């Protein structure tokens, strides 16, 4: 394992309350010195707060995978589309009320372009 990636041992999540609750119950929660690895997004959450958290999580060196509900990613789609780093890996996931739509997934679009689909 490369030295640059050995400290990446956390999952981070940006999503709705049901998604975050389920993942916290599964044990992904981590709070250290006031820094959390999850953001609960509801109707009152400002887009600027979602973008700021996305930027923070993609710059942190302890996060290996960033999960984001696809309907939340849609709110910051230009920012998500610009993200091209390998780590943390970015995965768009469905939520209880919003099914996954492959046509909106920027990562899947990039993979399809690579394979000429």
From TrEMBL:
It is found in: Vacuole membrane. InterPro entries: ATPase_V1-cplx_f_g_su (IPR008218), ATPase_V1-cplx_fsu_euk (IPR005772), ATPase_V1_fsu_sf (IPR036906). Its main location: membrane. Keywords: Hydrogen ion transport, Ion transport, Membrane, Transport, Vacuole. GO terms for cellular component: fungal-type vacuole membrane; proton-transporting V-type ATPase, V1 domain. Belongs to the V-ATPase F subunit family. Subunit of the V1 complex of vacuolar(H+)-ATPase (V-ATPase), a multisubunit enzyme composed of a peripheral complex (V1) that hydrolyzes ATP and a membrane integral complex (V0) that translocates protons. V-ATPase is responsible for acidifying and maintaining the pH of intracellular compartments. This is V-type proton ATPase subunit F.
């Amino acid at each position: 394992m490369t030295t640059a990636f050995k400290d990446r041992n956390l999952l981070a999540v940006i999503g709705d309350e049901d998604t975050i609750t389920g993942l916290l119950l599964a044990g992904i929660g981590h709070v250290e010195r006031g820094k959390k690895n999850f953001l609960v997004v509801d109707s009152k959450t400002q887009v600027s707060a979602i973008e700021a958290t996305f930027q923070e999580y993609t710059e942190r060196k302890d996060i290996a995978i960033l999960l984001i509900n696809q309907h939340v990613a849609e709110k910051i789609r230009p920012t998500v589309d610009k993200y091209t780093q390998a780590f943390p890996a970015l995965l768009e996931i469905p939520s209880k009320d919003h099914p996954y739509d492959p046509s909106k997934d920027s990562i899947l679009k990039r993979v399809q372009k690579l394979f000429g689909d």
